[in-house]
Amino acid sequence: MSNKVRIKRRAAGGAAGAPSSLENAELAYNEQDDTLYYGKGNGGAGGTATSIETIGGRGAFVDKSTAQTVAGVKTFTSSPIAPTPATNDNTTKVATTEFVKSQNYLTANAVNSVNGHTGDVVLSTDDVAEGVTNKYFTTARGAASAPVQSVAGKTGNVTLAVADVSGAAPLASPALTGTPTAPTPGSTVNNTQIATTAFVQALVASLINAAPGALDTLKELADAIGDDPNFAATVTNGLALKMDKSANLSDIANAATARTNLGLLSMAIQAANAVAITGGTIDGITFDCGTF
Q1: Buried b or exposed e, range 212-242, using 16+ CB within 10 angstroms
Q2: Which residues, 6 or more positions from 130, have their beta carbon under 8 angstroms from its beta carbon?
Q3: What is the pLDDT of residue 147?
Q4: pLDDT for 87-139, tens place per residue?
Q5: Rounded to whole angstroms, what are the CA distances from 221 to 214, 228, 243?
Q6: Which residues make beta-bridge pairs with 48?
Q7: Does pLDDT of 169 surpass 70?
Q8: Domain segments of the chain: what residues?
């Protein structure tokens, strides 16, 4: 395990910006604005830096994978490339040359025709007659009325032709083919009404109640508890053998033996401000430079 060196930092939620001061060659990272700072200047070995420079982080440089707002005037020395918006896009997205040329009404070949007029035409809603269609829209005044069926001038008995029903299913025990449908009963219905697939699926979904895929069948639930019909009692008896966390290890029967079993020996009972180390190797130390 290698040792660790942490640079100075400020956690997210604090104030944005650079630290008020840094040592020469010292680094600091502000998680609030995701910016890395460097203490620059020859203030002497370990001395205060003469300036604090921004050297990295999303707060100072363009991030390729996240949305950012880039302020200030930017000058490009070559032609930047941007995605082409959809044809009918009407937002603040960058309009590429491909987008502009795709708009038919801006090309020389665009022709509108209304009642025999060609060229540029300015229309108001009152100018458009019923059924007139141009390159961009169709309009109509009102909706077509429903067809009217009537038998006029007929009196007395009227003979109607009866359609051929030889292929109709009988009322008793019909043998249906294809995909017959029926109204879906409500979730509380409990009678001889036909249960549709939607009714069955709804009841199954209600029974499962959004359970995860690994626990949405009785077999999976049984496997999860080890096919133990006395699962609650088994868990309760197992917990009774465990230490009580509220006792903070005071319920250990033999603390000395426990320390020996853990390999702690005398280090575990030394005072933090008076630790004596003889021999061995110290590894995994963290040198923390604190916060700003």
Answers
A1: eeeeeeeeeeeeeeeeeeeeeeeeeeeeeee
A2: 139, 140, 141, 142
A3: 40
A4: 878 888 887 888 777 775 444 444 445 455 555 544 444 443 444 443 333 33
A5: 8, 11, 29
A6: 23
A7: yes
A8: 4-56, 184-242, 246-277
Report pLDDT for 27.
92
Q: Is residue 146's pLDDT more than 50?
A: no
Q: Which residue would you say has higher pLDDT here, 249 or 144?
A: 249
Average pLDDT over residues 177-198: 90
Most confident by average pLDDT, 83-92, 145-154, 190-199: 190-199
For the chain, the DSSP string reads ---EEEPEEE-TTS--S--S--BTT-EEEETTTTEEEEEES-S-TTPBPSEEEEEESTTTS--SSS-----S----SS----PPPPTT--SSS---HHHHHH-GGGSTT----BTTB-SS----GGG--TT-B-SS-B--SS-PPPP-----S--S----PPPP-TTSPPSSS----S----PPPPTT--SSS---HHHHHHHHHHHHTT--GGGSSHHHHHHHTTT-TTHHHHHHHHHHTSPPGGGTTTT-S-HHHHHHHHT-GGGGGS-TTS----SS---S-EEE--B-
Give the whole-angstrom CA distance, residue 20 versus residue 37.
11
The three-state DSSP-derived secondary structure of 77-128 is CCCCCCCCCCCCCCCCCCCCHHHHHHCHHHCCCCCCCECCECCCCCCCHHHC
Q: Which residues pair with 125 in a beta bridge?
A: none
What per-residue confidence (pLDDT) applies to 60? 74
